[in-house]
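Hey, quick one: can you model this chain's 3D structure?
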Amino acid sequence: MIDPLINENLVKFSALLNISLGLGFKAARCDMCHLAFAAWNASAKLKGFMNDSWKGPSKAAEIASLSDASKLEAIRNDIIEIHRELQNDESTIPDSYLSMQIRARKRGNAISVAETAKGAGHLKTGVLE
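Sure thing. Here's the predicted structure for all 129 residues.
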């Protein structure tokens, strides 16, 4: 079994990816943005493993003092966290077949085939019957 990285190493790896992203911007003309995209994708995936808690959207003064790579990461992280907050608020989710399935799975309730079969007309109209 492979042990996950401890948070201290995740922070170091995140800093390395941030440097790689900045370097990727400088090397973009030479490598057709490969380093920039690789660092961007890796840092986005790494964010899911980190234990840091979100303290709300970043302040403009904080973002202004960051490097370009750090600015992009801060904005991306804010967007991800705001999206998560909206997903947790079920009042913003429309009443569609998919959202009904997602809510049921979140609550741990399985929706029977009979329930979905009697309301299958919404697949054509896009509205629950």
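One thing worth noting: The mean pLDDT is 76.
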